[in-house]
Amino acid sequence: MPFRMSGQVVSHYGSAAAEIAVCSKAVGLVERSEIDLLQVSGKRMVLQRALAGAIPGAVPAPGHAACVADTWCCRVGPERALVAGAAGAVDRWRQVVTRAAAHTAIAVDARVLAEAEVLSMVGPKARAVLASTSLPDALHPGGVADGRLAGSPVSVLCEDHERYLLLFPEGCSSAALNNLGDSGRPVGLARVGHEALAHLRAARGGASLNG
Q1: 3-state DSSP call for residue 132?
Q2: Can you give the pTM of this predicted structure?
Q3: pLDDT, average across residues 8-34
Q4: In the chain, N or C terminus with fewer CB closer than 10 Å?
């Protein structure tokens, strides 16, 4: 199955009902062109203080993520975080972090990654797909770890054991997409549109970016 990032939000690929079934029994792959990525970096304590401006009292430790108002703050390392969410929410985070840095004279770099791309994997076989690639798969809910897929850097966020976000800060190459498609084919991975994702989200009470 060929995979290409379209840059457009796709409602469905023929049948939303069939795609909901894929997510319930196997694993669906969703292109998330509506999600922006903000990268925030700086010295460990400096980054901690800057992020506290947007998420006071709950800044995640390295290797962990926190969700606030449907936006994930992923502490991918001691000196680097990725914020994933809708464009408006991500821009508000950028403003808050930048303001906190300015008020305290701390050196923090906060920038929206123009080339970034995001994928969702949803379904009971999602972890099996990760395990068949070089990506980290032993993550607990709220855990995040860096990896590479066919040369593309990627941060894997576990929302829960059936829902993962793949954050590609430099974009997802065709080789990486094909690798993911090949790895997922044996367990029934298929493309899924946003209509199925919205249905799953409503059924779960809208608790995450993945539905």
Answers
A1: coil
A2: 0.90
A3: 89
A4: N
